[in-house]
Amino acid sequence: MGPDATVARRSSLLLLLLLLLLRSGALAVAGSPHRVLHDLLSEQRLLEVEDLSLSLLQGGRLGPLSLPPGLPDLDPECRELLLDFARSSAELTGCLVRSARPVRLCQTCYPLFQQVAGNMDNISRAVGNTSESHSCARSLLMADRMQIVVILSEFFNSTWQKANCANCLTNKSEELSNSTLYFLSLFNHTLTCFEHNLQGSIHSLLQLKNYSEVCKNCREAYKTLSNLYNEMQKMNELENKAESGTHLCIDVEDAMNITRKLWSRTFNCSVPCSDTVPVIAVSVFILFLPVVFYLSSFLHSEQKKRKLILPKRLKSSTSFANIQENSN
Prior knowledge:
Residues 1-28 form the signal peptide. By secondary structure, the protein is mostly helical.
């Protein structure tokens, strides 16, 4: 160690001792410690003393501070995998939030979800350059109590399962299924019909009262969409008999809910049921069954009274009594 370094080290130690005394209040004789501190040292000098003291405590080096040796660091391969997962997670989070209302997350975000799942698989399978004990999976997924990467992955998987997005996609989840595409096409066609048949500006929708044109011209489009939705529900129930409470994907359910609210609440339209006449006929028949029963029983009892015949013994006894009365 040269003479300059020794002098600098001693000066720094003395300044450090002075700083500790000022912080503890030992030199606060004629005023507050804060006032004495500003009288003896300027703010800039105080910062220099603190930096120099830290450097001395780390081994006497007067150069810039650096991390102590021995701290764990990621391999370049693992760091690249972590950055890929971070980028895909940020993109998927933004897509989920942007598609929250109206719900379009399954049809919009499924490519990004596949990227996140793929990056998570890469982290789970990858092995670092050092040894098998320091694999990327161990470093990124099990190195601390928080396990941020695992928490994010579980959040995305849980959200995807609750939305039941797999019901909207093909078996390999690579694209939207044909039934989903057909439903979305009918949904857009129905909304277009609503817009074209509105009487007045679409911006004054709440002030409109007469929606007869919408109900008349869009009835077939609405019935077709509703029937397709009911068929998709039945097919889903047949395919998932073992699972109770299964749903269609959230995009399809939300689209149908929007359409039904517009049709019934906003436009106050209704679709006549094709089974109305048979239902009314059966109801009337059941209602009049008691009347028919009591009327038939009454008529049957009257006929029995008319056909009543007196016995022969009763006739002879009455005739004999009449002869006796006449003789008297």
